[in-house]
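Notes to self, Hydroxymethylbilane synthase:
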Amino acid sequence: MTVRIGTRASKLALTQTQQTADQLAAVGGFPVELVHVRTDGDVLTGSLSQMGGTGVFVAALRDALLRDECDVAVHSLKDLPTGAAVGLSLAATPRRVDVRDVLCARGGLKLADLPAGARIGTGSPRRAAQLRAARADLDIVDIRGNVDTRLGRVPGLPGNSTDQVVPGKSCDLDAVVLAAAGLERIGRLDVVSEYLETDVMLPAAGQGSLAIECRTADAPAKPGPGGVLAQALAALDDPDTRLAVTAERALLARLEAGCAAPVGAYAYRRGSMLHLEAVVCAVDGTATVRDKRATDGLTEVGATLLGIELAELLLAAGAADIADLQAS
Ligand SMILES: NCc1[nH]cc(CCC(=O)O)c1CC(=O)O
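result:
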């Protein structure tokens, strides 16, 4: 049996899928092959909201699973909608990598060193809001495109030819903000000028982790060994990562937050406690509701309850009044 692993064609998707395929083959002892799946998000160039949100990246891979064109799909967990997918299971959340966002600025500048009015590119309302809250004078420019396209707009980054900012030209930004995880996976951490700590910039729920999905029939069964694929998937799962992302996603679901809602969330286990921090911001950066909670219930139910509890605290503090949570 050859296990077919569906992937998008972007460099990030190919890299993370190939790494996962290698790990599955190593632990499972079966051959694997990559199956290329085109998604609307790769084909169209309009704004993500016009296409129905980042869920478009996920939907085509899920269709391919359900149509039996592949057996396993690897997603960036932060792109996965919180609603359940009928017939599919979240089979594994491998150990999470760096959750932080990073600044990639010309001349190695840090956030505090950027000149007044500096042009910072991001397509994420969450990043825009937290940048404005930290530095009200910045000019936040809405951008999209793959990681290389974004990096290409900042002059003087390693790999870019010019070192001047020229508005209206392709090198028109002082900096972009990206996830450390994506840069780490494609081997481009050389462009980072500053790691933004979570007290300044809370990441998106699920940032830095992968979601490995399969048809429910192939998923690791709760008791019992399951088939060879199920066993290999179970071996790739990291329980602490699963707890953390369960809490983060329960918070999002309770907020009924769309994928473009300005919400940051980060959970992590320390000893016997699971901690969760979250923020909801007005996109203009003028108002922020932020809080944290912890639980000693280190189970999926405990993590879910933690997410719900913190979401309700944020709502009681006015989260729905300062931000359009349904933005998708
Ligand atoms: N929004 C697109 C996206 N989806 C996943 C990652 C990589 C980071 C991750 O896996 O969490 C990125 C790029 C980015 O946000 O910089």
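- The radius of gyration is 20 Å.
- The domain at 3-94+209-237 is CATH 3.40.190.10 (D-Maltodextrin-Binding Protein; domain 2).
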